[in-house]
Predict the structure.
Amino acid sequence: MKCFDIQTKSELAKLLAVAPFEIDYTILNRRKFYKIFQKPKPNGSSRTLCVPAGPLALLQQKIKEHILDQVPSLPSVHGGVQGRSVLTNARPHVRKQIVFTLDIKDFFPSVGPAIVHAVFAALGFGPEAASLLVDITTWDSQLPQGVPTSSGIANLAMTRVDVRLNTLANKWSFDYTRFVDDLAISGSWRLLSFRNLVRKIIEDEGFRINPNKIRTMHAGMRQIVAGIVVNNKINLPREKRELIRAQTLRFISTPKRFRKNLSRLRGQLSWFSSVNPTLGNQLSERAGNP
């Protein structure tokens, strides 16, 4: 996993194409470069987002591009990886007898400074450089959501889980994928006997499973992986398809009144077309490709 040999602040600054004093200034003043707000979640709770600005945002983007993006991702990892998506994450699970999904509880908050330091140390950064990277990429003793480096670091923090579950899947002809904090493993009925082992592997590596988001879905049920139906082909859930259809028809009947939501409708139709080209393109054509 070692991809670098960076020991000092000067070497880190050279890698990131900045001056050493810029690293010091950014770390010292990082509080004023964060805009922190709460975003409501569908379940009624809220998610804390930390949106960086100024030198902090620039430095984090450089860490993403010059360090995190240079580390090869495992084939099973699909969230936050260029060229992969929730669709590539879902495809291996189409037409399976059993689909078993789990969710990591408080995924980003559970990755603290010690784990982040270990991630950068494993990549080849010495104690001084790794500590600076921890200061730049963490906030309030955790990976902040809304920061460009968090997904890449979180993926690397899950490497041992991914390797162990990949090994299990390969041995027993299952398929395993992960999209951020959503894990899915699918295969024959034999998989039912391995569910406890899957949970134990995740917990052994220091992560907690959300007990409310554990699902075992057989082929006679609707099987969903990270929001995508995978029974016979990838598709959006029926209720999501109906919602997009209703919004499109409302736009067709009252386009002027719907104008303020036009960009959102375009995004939904584009997403629908990527998942279900036939129905999505039909709706787009009916709406005149808004």
The longest strand covers residues 34-40. The radius of gyration is 21 Å.
